[in-house]
Amino acid sequence: MTMNTQGRPTAPESVSMSSIETVSGSRGLLQHEDLLFEIGTSETTGVDLPAPKGTKNRLGGVARKQPTGLPGLSEPQAVRHYMRLSQKNYAIDLGLFPLGSCTMKHNPRLNEKVARLPGFGDIHPLQPQATVQGALELIDELAMWLKTLTNMPAVAMSPKAGAHGEFCGMMAIRQALIARGEGETRKRVLVPESAHGTNPATAAQCGFIVDEIKANKRGRVDMDDLKAKLEKPDDIAGIMLTNPNTCGLFETDIKEIADLIHAAGGYFYCDGANFNAIVGRVRPGDLGVDAMHINLHKTFSTPHGGGGPGSGPTVLSEALAPYAPVPFVVKDADGMYRLVEDIEGDASESFGRMVAFHGQMGMFVRALTYILSHGADGLKQASEDAVLNANYIQARLKSVMTAPFEGYCMHEALFSDAFTAEGIETIDIAKALIDEGYHPMTMYFPLVVHGAMLIEPTESESKAELDRFCDALESIARRAAQGDEALKGAPYLAPMRRLDETKAARKPVLKWAEPELAPPVAAE
What we know:
The protein is α/β, with parallel strands linked by helices. The protein folds into 2 domains: 261 residues, Aspartate Aminotransferase, domain 2 (3-Layer(aba) Sandwich), CATH 3.40.640.10; 119 residues, Aspartate Aminotransferase, domain 1 (Alpha-Beta Complex), CATH 3.90.1150. The chain is 31% helix and 9% strand. The protein is built from 14 helices and 12 strands. The strands form 3 sheets. It has a 7-stranded mixed β-sheet with strand order 1-7-6-5-4-2-3, with helices on both faces. Strands 10-12-11 form a 3-stranded antiparallel β-sheet. Strand 2, helix 7 and strand 3 form a beta-alpha-beta unit.
């Protein structure tokens, strides 16, 4: 008998947990919390300090003339405020994080410990290079492993995120076309429907014209449409293809696609955001890829979310390697490492500099720690387990949810809302998941599937945790198929109920304003 089934029931079965209201606004150990402005007042201060004696104000005409208007809180109040807010966060350390195409996997604590070593955590990008030889060696070694895993001869380490890596690859392609004297004539970039949404945006940012390729019934590139786009190849700059694609499927015609693009005189950019599914199993360089960014914050388990930190090194083929951005690390004959930072010598054909410094050092440390601690066999197993877990979820749920494409998936399982009763939408299912204690999956993406729900469990999750998640989602799916109107009001157990998300996005309230006092009621 478990602890939860011993003794007397703590509440009558007729009482619904969602119907219980509390005076404090708290729900058990989940504390209600107001804004700082509502907790403290501007008339008080958490710390009383006497006015300094014998000092002269040196602020001149910029001294503050009005109070700041910030609330004063004691130290316990401030600590409790942020602790209570932290309890409202969902995190990978709390449970399965099913966001598709994001790879929210466990971050080994070993990585964090190494990244905090003084020789890595306390250095400054403006230090003399002679004083950071260990850091430069680490960057060089990580670059070597990224090239080995992809079978590509060069890598640009400075891009600081996935879209930044895309930008790097497309700028290298642009520079290569300019060097060929075709910078003004080859402007068309083919982008499949199943590519990541940043791909067409990046192509446009680099001055290219986006030409969309249709998807076939298998969720992959429609080869007939691709070949039709290549009938007049003189303006083809290249293709931007995500593999595995955003439907969670491997592009089985990728080698033929690469050959066709190269025959047309273009370059092949592969979005490597989903590299976590194929590390150790497939080397993109073997498939004809010319450029591919690697999200270190996805594939090699660095922290992911909150707007960063990210890192998107971009591997380059022999055809694009001369145009890589500066800076990059080289090792001289005397064994010393240095940064090539000027567009001259080895970097004379570089398209230029992308960032102020050298990339994301903390991410480099974490990624190399992850790679070395796993080894070749461990990296391969991580990819295989990620694919296995996604296929397990697909197999568990396809009897109650609709899988839009036949066959096995890669690292993420995709479902549509075709199984839901009229009036029940994807967002209702996602909101109901919050009541079950899970962050919702990716919704309405990819756009090629109506009411899409994209789930990526990653390799980090055990079968027990996958079953727990599937049990919850299966129950919600059955309710959605039956047209349970209660789903329209979910979540019921979250700190905040369902909001008008459109209004919140278009008219966000970003500044706290003191509420106006109601006028006194006149006595009769």
